[in-house]
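Please, structure for the following, as tokens.
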Amino acid sequence: MKKIIIAAVASLMALNANAALINIYETNSSLNNIAQSETVINSSTAPTYSFESENIFYSDAAAHGAPGFDNGHNETFVLTATGFLDTSLYSALQFFHDDGMTVSLAGNAVYSYNANTGKRDSGLISFADTGLVSFDLLFWENYGAATLLTYGVLRSGTQATEVAKIASVPAPGAMALLGLGLLSLVAARRRKA
């Protein structure tokens, strides 16, 4: 019985998916477009700050019920977010942002605004149901209070709009842990029989 409990706990731990990785790169130079933002990322040895989040929903002005950016980033910075989006759950995304950004799903650009702007609404960006796809976002803030809100429209149609959930797929180590847990269950069952 003890082995079965240990195996079950190991299996449950393996199924715990981590949230998307968000990196922030601070800079003292003015940012006006995607190319300048990419230069900041490429010239950095490491992000200024990294954290995980299951959604991308921030506003330094505390607008829309959104928290401020972690660690007080509110001047000039580049933010990248990488993870996965379940397109069987969502049929569209909508972004509100106050400077430029670009978003890709499965490596294909779905939205881009390559200039500084006041608060802007991307409108609804629809896409096909292709299952779990990679999600990549690049956003920059150029001198000011930053806003970056990501909403997802549910494919089921039961809810109109909610904060989109971005997640990661289980890491190879987590998959190995799940396999080990399942093998332990099988071994315990055979010994009992």
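Confidence is low (pLDDT under 50) at residues 1-16. Helices lie at 2-15, 34-43, 172-192.
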